[in-house]
Task: inverse folding
């Protein structure tokens, strides 16, 4: 169940086989990224699983979805990072490890590239939105 429908260019010309292969690639990528800890994998591994060359896989994926497979992988990792950082019990170190980052520093740099803010600032923004006030402080009559 790939989340890439919104990437499809309306004027794209591709065969049903290309569409199916691209959907299969997107699904395999999402399945890997949705695991509790992302396993070490490459786009070449995805293509090998499907029995196609990485060159053909890359061209087909881009033709069907309008973005490169590597861009799609990065977007899926960013989606998961935001989800994991949204849980107060997950530290930045835990999230970096779950995403398979080589270090917390590299994860922080990558997240800042994706979001424009650091993971700690992202968490602070979310915790500010989550604050719950009691009825007495809410302005409602009791």
Result:
């Amino acid at each position: 169940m790939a989340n890439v429908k919104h990437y499809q260019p309306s004027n794209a010309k591709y065969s049903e086989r290309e569409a199916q292969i691209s959907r299969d690639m997107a699904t395999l990528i999402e399945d890997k990224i949705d695991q509790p800890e992302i396993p070490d994998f490459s786009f070449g591994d995805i293509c090998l699983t499907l029995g196609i060359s990485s060159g053909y896989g890359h061209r087909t994926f881009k033709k069907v979805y309008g973005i490169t497979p590597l861009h799609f992988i990065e977007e899926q990792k960013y989606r998961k990072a935001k989800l994991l950082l949204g849980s107060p019990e997950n530290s930045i170190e835990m999230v970096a490890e779950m995403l398979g980052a080589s270090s917390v520093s590299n994860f922080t740099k990558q997240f800042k590239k994706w979001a424009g803010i650091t993971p700690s600032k992202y968490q602070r923004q979310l915790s500010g939105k989550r604050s719950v006030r009691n009825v007495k402080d809410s302005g409602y009559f009791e």
